[in-house]
Request: fold
Amino acid sequence: SYIDKNRWEETVQAEPVSSSPPTEVAESIEEETMPRPSETKRMESSEKLIQLEALRAEVSVCRKCKMLCDTRTQTVFSDGTPHAELCFVGEAPGADEDATGLPFVGKAGQLLTKIIEACKLQRNEVYICNVLKCRPPNNRNPMPDEIAHCRPYLDRQLDLLQPKMMVALGKFAAAHLLGEKPDKVPITKLRGTIHDYRGIPFMITLHPAYLLRNPPAKRDVWEDMKEVMRRLGRPVE
Reply:
């Protein structure tokens, strides 16, 4: 289990005086006509799903970036539950993600899944998305115009989600949430710091792909994730 630290390092009676109904009658009418909190929550949940699916459909036919839409197999919108307290934001899809239509399913994604499980969560209990919705050719870094074209999609996605906490995986995700250019984000210096995105706190940490190349850095990411879970009221050790 990746929960073990050693192995982790490895890998809310008045009388009627008018034609208005008595108080008790008014309350009865209100009880019958006003939705209960649980019903309101279900309606809000249903509306969220409808809007996210509409956004997914919009993204799927996007052709703002000619090179990306000409070379992609499909767009990659998200994975997990839209009701998640925790949302992970990555950089862009890779070859495996382009093939499956799901984010973080390659080797870096498998490591992310282990990180999630180490936090005593399942992958279907969180929400995972990327800055770019299309794979850049040969997994190159996203270009500034591509980020600019995709920015409104991610902003709307996160505004709909409203998770309690987010984790920015790597330089490009951190830059987006910070509103900075990627070259202005020293990821190794900023990792482990908490910032704010439209009222949602987010932790900056290293991308799982970086951890595959630099295994000792897993310890740093584990410390970051322990702080994230502490802030969610679900501490892990």
In short: The CA atoms of residues 149 and 157 lie 14 Å apart. The longest helix spans residues 37-60. DSSP finds eleven helices and six strands in the chain. The beta strands are 79-80, 86-90, 127-130, 165-169, 194-197, 200-205.
